[in-house]
Design a protein that fits this description.
heterodimer, A: 131 residues, mainly alpha, 3-stranded antiparallel beta sheet, 34% helix, B: Rossmann fold, 5 helices
Chain lengths: 131, 201
Amino acid sequence: MSADGQGSSHWFDDEAGPVVRPYAMTRGRTTSAAQHRLDLIAVVVTEPHADDPEDDPTLSPEHVDIVGLCRDSSQTVAELAAELDLPIGVVRVLVGDLVASELVHVNRPVPPAELPDESILRDVINGLRAL
Amino acid sequence: MIFGRSERGKPPVEPVTLKILVAGGFGVGKTTLVGAVSEIRPLRTEELLTEAGRPVDDTSGVEAKNTTTVAMDFGRITLREDLVLYLFGTPGQERFWFMWDELSEGALGAVVLADTRRLEDCFAAVDYFERRSIPFLVGVNCFDDAARYPAEDVRRALDLDDHVPLVMCDARDREAVKEVLIGVVQHAMAQASERRAAVTT
């Protein structure tokens, strides 16, 4: 991902740790409204009309990063957290914001207590065999 | 509706995602197992433990440290373009149980990795999945320098229910790990059909 010059002039290195406390990116919020907890494997997909999130002054650079990452291929919450090096809780809040502003949508995995279809399980077994 | 530049490319595939947990004591080879089959180098996600974790997180002596990081390694196996399996290594320390609750929600099943030299390290995980009726399989990671025991002995030492599968494996070996994962899914299928039968009768 291109940093577009921003952040290329860091005078500190990774050893310094995050300069901004993680939840500062969420303005201190630890949950997002209207959004129950996103599973680690919930799939985040950028909406086709989310064209120039950079121009939206209400979005933080991290919001823009998420919109960009999920445009070419969908990403799970866990993958976003690893890619952006942010705690899962922070990613959840940021994704919640983006869902609220209709820039991304989220596909939830099969709900708990409701095992996936037997045919899917069979596909998993066959897929593993074929690896 | 504004479509903007959306015609540039196809919309991304939105796959069905599934997860299997990999549990067991510290240093038993969870991340090794994940790495043996994952198409990506195991990634690390982190969660911060702050207020919520305070009652159980004993920070006496290090009071200045008020956040703790719980790390989880995970890997990915794309079975089909629209079907992706994730493997999550659970955090080893028992004080991170709350993370297990969230990890196990919606999980297909679990692998409990055991080391015969420190069998007691996996008791907590066995107990956890048993109580929540999450289908699991015990994989005995056969370390090169550990004595081999018959499966029956290990099973008895763990006090495993008869229906819980137990297999010997090498967490470094891709084929062995594939078999372990297939075993988990088969066990999950069997348990689901049993449950279905119990509901309908």
